[in-house]
Automatic annotation (TrEMBL):
Organism of derivation: Lentzea aerocolonigenes (Lechevalieria aerocolonigenes)
Superkingdom as given in the UniProt entry: Bacteria
Alphabetized PANTHER family for the sequence: ABC TRANSPORTER ATP-BINDING PROTEIN, ABC TRANSPORTER ATP-BINDING PROTEIN NATA
Protein's UniProt keywords contain ATP-binding: yes
Localization per Swiss-Prot or TrEMBL: Cell membrane
Name the UniProt record assigns to this protein: ABC transporter
Entry keywords, A to Z: Antibiotic resistance, ATP-binding, Cell membrane, Membrane, Nucleotide-binding, Translocase, Transport
Family membership noted in the UniProt record: Belongs to the ABC transporter superfamily.
């Protein structure tokens, strides 16, 4: 990817607070129209990195180019072209969802009618006349994203937009994020949910202790791990000895409720299990980004 065609270019940025290195030599580029995820546990440096890119925070060193412009010192030329959804959004008191959007839009000279389009995009058309204080947590997050989009920016920054949402609200928001990208927008977002990054992102940067540990499409990161597939059977479906003897099995072990088989060649293993009629209750788990994180850091992922 050439830097000339990139929406974001980050070169060796650093930010410390006393002895804490919040961002420690981070570099990456984001292409126009890309869905780019910065993922890692809480305290990894994701939000600080995003704030530096947005021009909200000055780096100690390093360079950032955003849509061909330098974001710091505060660059007013960039403001109409970027949309920012922070971890916590402060709305105006006693305004409805539609009025919130119309107010935000008025700051950019956007017509009042645009609010209806944005509410439709984020699935809140039926809540247009509802007070913001009456919305659920997931609906409030969607309204926050609509406020970031109301002026039709070229690039949207979303900082942990699905944090603290229940599973159904998270998945509803995934549909909103996909719809945003389909409109041709560049999305840069942070999350500590590895599963959603694996589903949504074109590329991800796995970050921890202020550094980027890996950067690639999720499938490439997982494929490069060369981790075994785990096939889990109900206990009693087969003995550990018989499972270990199957072609392609690397390891088999049993606990109180299940038998787990590890293999890097799942096809012959599954075929053999089918021949033995041992498929009832079978589950197959392939490697995930969480396994990548464990391999990179030597420890379990912490949200």
């Amino acid at each position: 990817m050439t830097e000339e065609r990139s929406a974001v270019v980050v070169r060796d940025i650093r930010k410390s607070y006393g002895e804490l290195k919040a961002v420690d030599g981070v570099s990456f580029t984001v292409a126009e129209g890309e869905f780019f995820g910065i993922l890692g546990p809480n305290g990894a440096g994701k939000t600080t990195t995003l704030e530096i890119i947005e021009g909200l925070r000055k780096p100690d060193s390093g360079e950032v180019t955003l849509l061909g412009e330098i974001p710091w010192p505060r660059n007013t030329k960039l403001l109409p072209r970027i949309g920012v959804q922070l971890q916590a959004t402060a709305f105006f008191d006693k305004l409805t969802a539609k009025e919130q959007l119309q107010t935000f839009g008025s700051l950019y000279g956007v017509s009042p009618g645009t609010a209806a389009d944005m509410l439709e995009l984020v699935g809140l058309a039926d809540k247009a006349n509802e007070l913001e204080s009456k919305l659920s947590g997931g609906q409030r997050q969607r309204l926050s994203i609509a406020c970031a989009l109301v002026h039709d920016p070229d690039i949207v920054f979303l900082d942990e937009p699905t944090a603290a949402l229940d599973p159904q609200a998270r998945r509803n928001l995934w549909d909103v994020l996909r719809a945003i990208q389909e409109r041709g927008k560049t999305i840069v977002y942070t999350t500590h949910y590895l599963d959603e990054a694996e589903i949504l992102c074109d590329r991800v940067a796995i970050m921890d202790t202020g550094k980027i540990l890996a950067l690639d499409p999720p499938a490439v990161l997982v494929r490069g791990l060369d981790a075994p597939t785990h096939v889990t059977l109900q206990k009693g479906a087969m003995s550990v000895v018989d499972a270990s003897a199957l072609d392609g099995v690397e390891e088999a072990h049993e606990d109180e409720v299940s038998l787990t088989i590890s293999t890097r060649r799942p096809a012959p293993v599954l075929s053999a299990l089918a021949e033995r009629g041992a498929l009832d209750g079978l589950q197959v788990r392939t490697a995930t980004l969480e396994d990548v994180f464990l391999n990179l850091t030597g420890r379990e992922y912490r949200a």
